[in-house]
Write a structure and sequence with these properties.
With 93 residues, the protein is of the alpha+beta class. Helices cover 31% and strands 25% of the residues.
Length: 93
Amino acid sequence: MLQSHLHSLIAKAHRYQGEPERFELTAESPFIVRVHGANGDHSVALNGDHLVCDCDGFAQRGERICAHVLGVEHHYRTRLPDGAVTWPFAAPA
């Protein structure tokens, strides 16, 4: 079962997906996107094969997921490796 904060961040990511102007590709290599979020701008970068974000929620919860990462994954899905987002509570592969 998803925790309530995951429901909230998924809803926020869906809002961001409908607003492509929020995403600004700032570098191709390394891959970095500036996300113009509801409460400020955040950088999402591809670190190895996984996306990371500089927002407080990404760092503090330790789940390796946030609305910014989910939005970047959706917006740039053709440029990212499979599995670029780590889903908490997912069954191991």
